[in-house]
């Protein structure tokens, strides 16, 4: 398999994740539901258990409390390194969706009555719904740019055509969780700032985070949100980064408290600590594939290797493995975004002519292959309805998936598609 991991690296990678080839409830299975939540690092499992047993809180006059604060500070420094954020701040909240709503809400209210909010129809409702609601509350005009239905993504040129001098808030999805296609965030940001340099730009990075490097300094945006359970950590919290411009806007805070504090109440130190586990894993992987010693260089190398491994897997899924035909050769299979799309990030969504997508998912699951049904509902209707589809099968991979996983999938799809 070209551009993928060596057998040695593949084995080491899979050994670092929990339940990599079996479900604790259903037994052996191939996990192609990574967009719904990636596998969890074994180190994250251990860290979560360790901190769940600690009774102390931050901000107390004792050694345990001071240690917890140091662990949180280290996690924030690790995130700044991992995402290349030389300024601004990181904080955690209830979920990625909740944090997107909060950042977008405060950005809109800070620019009340001053112009327009710019979004795209490619976005997950977490950002689209927040922009729609808070644009209305803040007396701003909400403009939704149409994405390219055929390609399953949106180009910077589409933003350039829609942005105006009075665009005060803009939202971008880094990767679509339905089509799997990425967006050039840096190019979009440049297109926006060319006409509206002070626009507050907020990015939904939830789907992208597990599939390649993040470089906030290069993007020139004001907010970036991920859901750590989709990046090898665990459920129960989201992570947001804010620029210095965004962190200073008015927001909910306790009277008399620190002016730039965005966290509400005491946070889980263990949640922060698992972020250091994720950073450490990427540093390890980058060292394995590159031999680099610098921490940031290792993280960059890991992102490149992850992208290469996932491209090799999706190419194998589309073009075939050994004597197994790929999806491209299955006449009744249609791939959303087309089979040849350089924007693809570890995800293939498809439909089978004559077989309802819900049935395809059920048959794959019965054969031990976990995928997911996306319906034309409030989550995915923005993508599926323009294509005339009531649903699709989302097959989402991650770098720890193997070519053998793809082979098992194609063997079952051959039967379904015939």
Automatic annotation (TrEMBL):
InterPro entries: Aminotrans_V_dom, PyrdxlP-dep_Trfase, PyrdxlP-dep_Trfase_major, PyrdxlP-dep_Trfase_small. It comes from Lentibacter algarum. It comes from the Bacteria. GO terms for molecular function: lyase activity. Pfam families: Aminotran_5. Residues 30-258, 325-409 form the Aminotransferase class V domain. Transmembrane segments: none annotated. This is Selenocysteine lyase/Cysteine desulfurase. Keywords: Lyase, Pyridoxal phosphate.
